[in-house]
Each structure stands twice: as C-alpha cells, then as structure tokens.
Prior knowledge:
Blueprint: E1 2-14, E2 19-26, E3 29-36, E4 45-55, E5 58-69, H1 74-81, H2 91-101, H3 105-111, H4 124-148, H5 154-164, H6 168-174, H7 179-182, H8 188-197, H9 205-223, E6 228-229, H10 230-241, H11 249-261, E7 265-270, E8 273-278, H12 279-296, H13 306-320, H14 326-337, E9 340-345, H15 351-366, E10 373-377, H16 380-390, E11 395-396, H17 397-400, E12 403-404, E13 409-410, E14 422-425, H18 433-441, E15 448-453, H19 466-473, E16 478-481, H20 492-501, E17 517-521, H21 525-542, E18 551-555, H22 564-576, E19 584-588, E20 591-595, E21 600-603, E22 617-624, E23 629-633, E24 638-641, E25 649-651, E26 654-656, E27 665-672, H23 682-689, E28 692-700, H24 702-710, H25 721-728
Parallel strand pairs: 3-5, 9-15, 9-16, 10-11, 10-14, 14-15, 17-28, 18-26, 18-27, 27-28
Antiparallel strand pairs: 1-2, 1-4, 2-3, 4-5, 6-8, 7-8, 12-13, 19-20, 21-22, 21-25, 22-23, 23-24
Helix pairs in contact: 1-2, 4-5, 9-10, 9-11, 10-11, 12-18, 12-25, 13-15, 14-15, 19-25, 20-23
Amino acid sequence: MEKVTGIIERVIHRNGSGFIIFAVRDGHKVFPVTGEDQDLHEADFVECEGDWGEYKGAPQFKAKTIIPQIPSTTEAIIAYLASGRIKGISTVFANRLVKAFGKDVLHIIENEPHRLKEVQGFGAKRIRDLTEGLKEQIGYRSILLFLHSFGLSKHHIKRIYEFHGVSAVERIKEDPYQLCQQISGIGFGTADSIGLQMGIDPEHPSRIAAGIMHALNAEVNKTGNTGMPESDLAQKARSLLSSQRPVSEEKVIIGIAAATEKGEAVRFEVGDVEYIFPQHLHEAERGIALHLKRLLSIQSVADADEEALNELIDEVQKDFGLVLGEKQRTAVKMSLLSPVAIITGGPGTGKTTIMRVFLECCRRVLGLENLDILACAPTGKAAKRLSQASGLEALTMHRALKYNPVEGEFEYSSENPLPEAVIVIDESSMVDTQLCYWMIQAVATGARLIILGDVDQLASVGPGKVLADMIVSGVIPVTRLNEIRRQAAGSKIITNAHKINNGQMPELDNSDKNGDFWFFKGEKDEEIANTIISLVGRMSKYYNLDPFDDIQILTPQRMGVLGVYELNTRLQKLLNGKNLGTGIKLKQDNVDVEFCIGDKVMHIKNNRDLGVFNGETGRVINADKKSRILKVAYDDKNVEYAFAELEELRLCYAMTIHKSQGSEYRLVLMPCTTSHRNMLNRSLYYTGITRAKQLMGLVGMVKALQVAVNTTSSDKRLTGLLQHLTDEIPKVAV
C-alpha cells in the first residue's frame, strides 16, 4: 500500500453512511480520494494509506485508512484555522497569526495563549474562543492519531472520545486498562496491547487488576457459573498475565485481595467453601433473594377459605369448558394464595391452562382489567407465544422494564416499580441472573408474581441457574407438573420429548405419514449435513413453510461439518445465494462470514448502547460494503451496526440448541452424531426437540441418540443464589 498526504480542498460526496469522496491538494497536484469518513472537513490535513486506481480514466486514490493530522506546514495551518470550525477566525486572522508565530502558532495557542495579544485584533473574547475551539479540534485529532497507532477502530476511538473528551490521551497514558470497564467492545486483550506497547510494567497493579477481572468475567460467561474458587481464578489470571514474562503468584493473590477491597469482586461462602464472585453478579443474586423476601412478606390479598376458592375455580373452568387435573387445580390455588409462585413442567402438561384459569380468577376476585396484568418473557419469540396463549399483549422483559438506550438504564426499578398488580414471567428457565434481578426488583410490594418454566430445559445462556435454585431452595411454593394432558398425548414431539427427559429412547417409527416426529438415518457427518440441506428444500415446499421464519436448524456445536458455521454457509447459499458477494465480509472465530441483505441473523450479546439484547433475531435490510455499516430489522426496531459491532451478530439459519431457548418453530431439524459426543446429553436433546411446534426431524445415528438419552447433563453450575435464598427466607410449609 502507498501513503499520500495533503489538504482537503473540497468534499465531493458523502453518503451519510460513512463513505466519502474528497479532493486532496498535495503541492500543485489535486486528486480524488475515496474511503471511510473520519468526520472530515474542508481544510483538514490528512494522511491516507491505500492504493491508486482509476475512475472514468482519471487517477483516484482508494484509501484503506484516512487519518486527520495536526497541520504542520504554514499553508495547512492557515487553511485549518480559517476553515470556519473555530469561532471568529477568518482567513485574515489566520494569516496574521501565522505571520506572527510561523509554524509554532498551534503550540502558542495551546500553551502560551497570552502571547496572542501581540497580534492585531485579538482581544480576550477572540483568544478564549480560539483556545477553546482549537483544544476541542486538535484534541480529537490527537486522540485519533494516538489510538490509531494501536489498531483501534474509528468506532471505538469515537466512543473513547465521547467518554473522556479532549483529555482521552492523558487518561489512557495514566491507565490504559480502565478502557476495559469504560468502553463496550474493548476487552483486556486490546487494553493490554496498548499498555504493553506503551511500556507498562507487566506486574503493574492496574494490569494485574484488569487481568484478574477479565479472567473472572470470562469464566462466568463461558461456564454459566456466577463465581469461582480463588485458586482457580489465580491460576487463570496468572496464565493470562504471563504472556510477556512470568507474573508471580504472590502478585496475583495481592491483586485479588485488592479487587475485593475495591468492591470489583466479592468473597462469599457457599456451603463451607469461599468463592470469588464478580460484584455485579453477587449483588444481583443477593438482590433477587432480598426482593423475593420483600414480595413474600405480604399476605395474599386473594386469601380465602378453601370452599370459596374451590367454588371460584369450578366456576371459571366451567366457563372455559375445562376440567383441571388435580395438580393443575393445586397450582391455581397456590398461585392465588401466595404472592410468589412457581409452576414448572414440560410441554403438554398444562402450564398455559393454569395461567389462563389463574388470571381469570384474579379478574373476578380482585376486579382486575388486562391493563393490571403484565405478561412477559425473556425473548421476543417467547413473548409472542405468551401473547397467543394468554390473550394479553405480552412483552419481552427488557421492553416491560422500558429500557432507555440514551440513559443506559431501565425506567422501572426498585425506585420506580412496575404499576401492574399481577406479573407473569414465562420461559423462566432461560432467564439469567442479571435479567432476573432487573425484573424482580421492579415488582411492586403487594403485587403477585407467577413464574412459569420447564426446569428440565437447558440452563440460561447467561450466568446462573435461577429457576433451578429457586425450586431447590424450598422458600417459594412450587407445583411440578409431570402428567401429559389428554389433548397433548397424541403428539409424538411431546411424548418423545418426555421419554428422552425420563431416560428412555424415543419412538423412531416413521410409518405414520401424518405424524409430527421423524428420524432420518445417516452414518457420516457429510451425509447427515446433505440430508438436512435437502430436507429444508423438500419440506418447505411439501408443508408450505417459509424457510426463513418457519424452519430452524439446531445443532449442539459451533464448529465442524455439522456445526453452526458450516451449516449456515450452506443454508445461506441455498436460501439467499442471489445476494452472496454483495454483503459485508469478516472473520468470526477464524471463519469467513458474509452478511448480506435478506440474511437471517441473531444478536448474541446484551448491548445496552444499541438497545439490542442477547437472543434477538432479525433480518438484514441493508449492507453497505463501502461504509461497512449493516442495518438489521428486528421485531420492534431497526438497528445500525458499525463494522466493529458485527462481532455481536451471527447468521442464524442454523444455531446452537442453547441459543434456541424460548423459541418455537413450525419445523426443527437437528443432527444426531457421535462427533458431538461431548455434547450428547438428554437435557440438550430434550430442549432441542421441545422447540418444534408442529414438525420435528432428527437426522443421523441411532447410537448417538442412545448416548444422549443415557447421559445426564454435566452442566453443574456454581452459583450463590441458592445460598442467598436459604439465608434470607424461611422455607415454605410442604
């Protein structure tokens, strides 16, 4: 690549999405440059790196990077000062300044502004406007120059500037590791690269502290634990920090102690063993327990004698044309009598029926309207299903709490509780610790909270096992439903899911052409993958399914022939091949990926700046290759992604079974292979199969399915919630 420098003579075109064409003067030569807009203006002095090309027969420089420089020639300084961006400085005044001070003028303005009085026309106000304006303009360019040398993207540099302002370089030089906590998308690796290039001591306390917190947060996000033993943390942190030269164990132990003293991490005993927890997760687990204690301390307003309660339930089930089973009836009573109640059970066991009867009883006894009831779920798809089941306008939990991306916080909280008298949370097995805390703290004292979920599903993607801990604690009334209701017994999806959950092989007979569960045999991974791709095309036509909205491929792993990446590549070619080559290309997990208009995508990380949360799915509606900005349409919003933010997005024609939690699809296809042996367990397959609403196809090896059925989950998460619950709340009478 080549470098060119010069003054921007005029901006020819900018499209508003980050692409710019401008004319540069380098001595007597003027030529066009194209590239990514860096908030460029006429009279800016720029350094461009890229290659020469042609446009309509004339030379044109195609820049890979464009970095505004601090002007150094008298011509560039005059053009810059007179550009109109500094209040009160015209070409006349700019010439006077350069004539008086030459190339030192910028240094004089910044460091010796009193000397400007020597120049005609410079009184106190003009000097103040000049020094303040230049400080802001030169400050941003200094930040851009400083951080670009470390390989940071324009997006992250802009975020740093917005956070620190013109003092950013000074702040970063003091402690580059503070960026890990301050700027979304900048982790320890980036901050450490800056720090080590700056020559920071590998055993500097700031570096060790950042490495410890990175190791701790990486562990909880990877494993789903909410804490870890101190010895394990010390080992992982020391390994991370010893990339340049060995860091002593003593320094790391001192660093862990310092982190707990500063409140970044917390020591907490679970049983008789002390663990280290990130502060935000410790506070969330403790907060869940304290807020549940608050809610449970209020006697139920629906408290009534047994006879009156039975009469009410009889009346409602008669009006609904229902006959409740014994456990269903018990669950309705429990939900009416306790301020907080949990109902857990698999598909077809009647959770929805219980919810409908309970809500109608509340309407009749408490005189509630629909506006007094909040129905919510962790994801948009789960909320849609809850809407259909309840007849209410169900919301995602984030929308229910009214997240404000500008303020970066929720409108509803412990200080401003939700106004509803009854709150129903569905698909609670996939609610992680942090989301549960945000939700439960916002439930008003005196309100009723009903938690629905299937505890046998996979645990949440995020840290914690909230539903399981609540059930095991014994401090909240629980009804466990295990009887398949008559209307669901005819579905092989439901009966086979329950068989797998109980450690029994499912029925694999494909003889019923009108059935809803099939097993397609295959003995090699390539053969299994080919069958899945073929089935997507055939079944979408035969059953009149939309391959984007109605069909979902679920797989245990991300890598390999039957992993998410390779299946997505093949499915993208099958379903959106016409747009391949027109999108934005990047690497994810060292795999080449392209996002094109029309692609089905999933956001995989909570991003409060964008207002998008883990598990939300949408479709790409614009992919600008030049600016590398992608636009995605979600259910309730359109979101623009800068290139650096695309790491939080994934193609999702195929997704992991974990990522499918809370969703349902008309057709689910799932591989079954011994190459996934480390992931073969009944909880995973039970969760995957129960995502199928109408049709389910397992594709692969019977022996792999047998291994899954015989294997219980190894996901034994370490959390502090159970301890907090039993410490704070007395057990309920059984």
